[in-house]
Amino acid sequence: MEALLVPLLILVLAGVAVVLAARALGRRRPAARPDESPKPIRNSAELARTAAAKLDQEQHRRLYALIAQGQAMAAIKLYLEATGEGLRASRDAVGALAAHPQPYRPREAPQQPAHDDDEDAPQRFPYRYRAIASKGEVTREVSSNMLNDEIYGRIRTLARSGDTEGAAAALTRHSDISLKQAREFIALLEE
Question: Would you say the pTM of this structure is higher than 0.85?
Answer without folding.
Answer: no
